[in-house]
Write a structure and sequence with these properties.
Length: 218
Amino acid sequence: MKAVIYCRVSTEKDTQDTSIERQKEELLSLAATHNMNVIKIIEERHSGYDVDRDGIIEALELLKDKKASVLLVQDDTRLGRGHAKIALLHEIKKLQASIFTLNEKGEPELSETDSMILSILATVEEFQRKLINYKIKRGMQRAIQNGFNPQKNLKNQDQAGGREKIEVPLEEIIKLRNKDLTFQEIAATLRGLGFDVSKATVHRRYKEHIEETQFNSK
C-alpha cells in the first residue's frame, strides 16, 4: 500500500521545527508498522483554516493520480480545521482514498455533525450531477431542433462501430457554437457522437479558429 505523509504546523516560527520533525518520524514509524510504502513526505507551514495550501493540494494530486491510496497525518486537525477540514475529507472520499491518523491508528472518527455535513455534501453533488446531465440532454435536443443532424454529421460511418474517434470536428464545433450552445454542451454532444473531446479542447479549437479567422481578415 502506497502512502503520502502530510505534516503541518500553522506558523513559520522556528519553534515549530521540532513539531514537524516529530510528526514525520512518528508517521514514518506508523507506515513501517503497517507495511506502507511512503512515496512522498510533505511538510507545510500554513493555517489549517485555509484549504488553498500548496502542500495539501500536492497530496490530493498524488491521490487523484493513484500514485498513493492513503494519506497519513498525525490527526485530523493536521489535515485542516473548520470548513477546510470538511472540504478535504469530502474530496479525499471522492478520490476513493483513505486517511490514516497516528492518534487513532486508523480512519479518523468523525463527529455526528461532521458526518451529517459530509452526507449533505454528497447529496448536493449528486443533485448537481443530475442537473448537468439534464442540461446536456436539453442541449442536444436544442441542437437537433436547430437543424443539427447527428447521423448526417457522423464521420467514418463505414468503419466498425465502437472505433474511437480522436479527431476534433471543427466544423461541428462552429455550427453548434453558432446555435448558441455552450462549450460544455458542445463537448457533451460530440462525446455522444463518439468524439473523445473535453470542454477545454472544444474551447481551445474554437478560440484557435477565431484567432485564425481574425488574422486572415487583416
